[in-house]
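Morning run. Coffee first, then this:
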Amino acid sequence: MPDDTTGDVGGHVDGHGTRMTGMAALVTGAGSAGDFLGTGAAAALLLAAQGATVGILDISAERAEHTRKRIEGSGGRAVALTADITDEESARTAVDEFAVRAGRLDVVVNNAGTTGEGDVMRTSREGWDRVFALNVTAAMQVARAAHPHLVRSGGGSVINISSIAALRGFGSGAYGASKGALQSLTIDLAYSWGPDRIRVNCLVPGHLHTPVGDHGGAEGRRMRGAANLLGLEGTAWDLAWAVLFLAGAESRWITGAVVPVDAGTTTATVLGMLPRMGEAQGTRKGGHR
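And here it is:
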């Protein structure tokens, strides 16, 4: 597929350029294990292909190193970092190390996250706390550790990765609640850090074909494609391009924004989508077109 995450950087569009030349970007949860990339690895690859020095921060040293090798194999610059960012000291140490090695810090992408155990009736208290620790608290700790480095660089961009589970019911329990909290944190940080010329925005991805979201085989992929206004399944590159925009100078006057990257999924009602999904199955159903 021309837009898959197993091909060239950028997927459906050539990702190489100079928009991030001279900048340093840190991406959490950017490790990878193979050619099928998640959103963190895709964002790291695209930022590097655009000239940034990229910090690949992951709890797995092996996964972080895999992404680093892929970036450097295509001529980019990357630093692999290993830390449990739910621990505040570990998060701060990793952020400081990258800023020193890169010589500056301009962009932070809070991508690391976990899905949890399901709806609230199936979620243990320990599971609930674990999801919030990574999806919200760790993002705050990484951003807070990055703040003085961003200030020294003259400002910068913090990009938090949420989910449409924060906006629509999926029975996701702690996951949806934590992603909603991350959106609120985004707005508060944008307010607090605006005078420092630090922009803080949030991307809200929809149903993507990624290692985390790849459920149901071929039928799952068809359903993901049908469940949006464009009739196209999204990939990690679609989110990565939005990250690149919010990281660069083109978005210098955008902060406090919560931006869906979901092919319009959250703008439609269930009843409105049923006819289109029926047509995708080859069965025309009644309803407005």
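Residues 228 and 269 are 10 Å apart (CA to CA). Good start to the day.
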